[in-house]
DNA sequence: CATGCGTGGTT
DNA sequence: TAACCAAGCAT
């Protein structure tokens, strides 16, 4: 396999975006919060809410001391509000089990609510500078093309970590840069839809390019239609509860004009099951 | 391993 | 303009 690390490091030095979580001294808590928010939400929508969040809750203990409802409310329209609940739970776990300090050990990080293979290693590498493979969807696409000669990556798999490890340099700081650079390249150049191969530092050693950009198929799962979905109904219910001035609404007054009231009630039930909503005496509210 | 889970910008 | 896409996770 050709060396991918050296050109990635050089390219990153000249092309990395100036993002808040890359500032010196941003802190492990800031990194952790940013990674939660970036799970499936674009950078441009995360930045303003991240900064407001960290001003309000500068440490894990600050968030842990707040009711979960505040976390869900301040998550605003970032989407997938379960992440707000999970981040709050993780803050409580960090306070109770780690003396309020974001853990550095990958297994300790993996044990926190809402943290999986990607986020655990992203915190260990980007906040603490340790040497681990960090694999997100951008990295998987870069490796699928440059190494495997495929047009799109397959579904995420455990194997991805070993594949990334195979291109990491021995130097600890260099390995961190390569992790960041692979993600950044996938975000800016080796994109899903219209890759800018003419601007790619790996073009002279890319297996997909060498093979003539074959369409090797796309096994990624398509997102279900949003319009009319239960997810849309859940979003509408939760929006009402987030914005309720009294923080408390009668069940029957939540999106009463929803076109399918069976679906609305199913959405409420599932939100209660997820812990995102509490039902008390026929009224609904965010969890305290 | 497949599925469900928000929201809004881009093509 | 409907479909696509976005630093995943738990179950």
Automatic annotation (TrEMBL):
<keyword id="KW-0378">Hydrolase</keyword>
<dbReference type="InterPro" id="IPR011257">
    <property type="entry name" value="DNA_glycosylase"/>
</dbReference>
<comment type="similarity">
    <text>Belongs to the Nth/MutY family.</text>
</comment>
<dbReference type="InterPro" id="IPR003265">
    <property type="entry name" value="HhH-GPD_domain"/>
</dbReference>
<dbReference type="InterPro" id="IPR044298">
    <property type="entry name" value="MIG/MutY"/>
</dbReference>
<dbReference type="InterPro" id="IPR000445">
    <property type="entry name" value="HhH_motif"/>
</dbReference>
<dbReference type="Pfam" id="PF10576">
    <property type="entry name" value="EndIII_4Fe-2S"/>
</dbReference>
<dbReference type="Pfam" id="PF00633">
    <property type="entry name" value="HHH"/>
</dbReference>
<dbReference type="Pfam" id="PF00730">
    <property type="entry name" value="HhH-GPD"/>
</dbReference>
<dbReference type="InterPro" id="IPR003651">
    <property type="entry name" value="Endonuclease3_FeS-loop_motif"/>
</dbReference>
<keyword id="KW-0479">Metal-binding</keyword>
<keyword id="KW-0234">DNA repair</keyword>
<feature type="domain" description="HhH-GPD">
    <location>
        <begin position="37"/>
        <end position="188"/>
    </location>
</feature>
<protein>
    <recommendedName>
        <fullName>Adenine DNA glycosylase</fullName>
        <ecNumber>3.2.2.31</ecNumber>
    </recommendedName>
</protein>
<dbReference type="InterPro" id="IPR023170">
    <property type="entry name" value="HhH_base_excis_C"/>
</dbReference>
<keyword id="KW-0326">Glycosidase</keyword>
<keyword id="KW-0411">Iron-sulfur</keyword>
<keyword id="KW-0227">DNA damage</keyword>
<keyword id="KW-0408">Iron</keyword>
């Amino acid at each position: 396999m050709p060396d991918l690390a050296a050109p990635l490091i050089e390219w990153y030095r000249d092309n990395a975006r100036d993002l808040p979580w890359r500032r010196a001294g941003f802190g492990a808590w800031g990194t952790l919060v940013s990674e939660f928010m970036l799970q499936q939400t674009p950078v441009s929508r995360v930045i303003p809410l991240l900064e407001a969040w960290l001003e309000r809750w500068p440490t894990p203990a600050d968030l842990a001391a707040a009711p979960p409802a505040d976390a869900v409310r301040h998550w605003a329209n970032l989407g997938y509000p379960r992440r707000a609940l999970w981040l709050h739970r993780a803050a409580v776990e960090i306070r109770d089990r780690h003396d309020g300090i974001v853990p550095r050990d990958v297994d300790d990080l993996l044990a926190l609510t809402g943290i999986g293979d990607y986020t655990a290693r992203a915190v260990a590498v980007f906040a603490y500078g340790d040497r681990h493979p960090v694999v997100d969807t951008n990295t998987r696409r870069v490796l699928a093309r440059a190494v495997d000669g495929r047009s799109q990556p397959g579904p995420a798999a455990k194997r991805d970590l070993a594949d990334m490890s195979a291109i990491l340099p021995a130097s600890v700081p260099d390995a961190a840069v390569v992790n960041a650079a692979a993600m950044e390249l996938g975000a800016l150049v080796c994109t899903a839809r219209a890759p800018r191969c003419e601007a790619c530092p790996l073009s002279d050693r890319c297996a997909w390019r060498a093979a003539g950009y074959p369409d090797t198929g796309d096994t990624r799962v398509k997102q279900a239609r949003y319009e009319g979905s239960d997810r849309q109904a859940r979003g509408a219910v939760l929006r009402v509860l987030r914005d309720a001035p009294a923080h408390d609404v009668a069940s029957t007054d939540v999106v009463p004009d929803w076109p399918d009231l069976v679906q609305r009630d199913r959405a409420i039930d599932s939100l209660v099951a997820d812990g995102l909503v509490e039902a008390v005496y026929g009224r609904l509210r965010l969890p305290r």
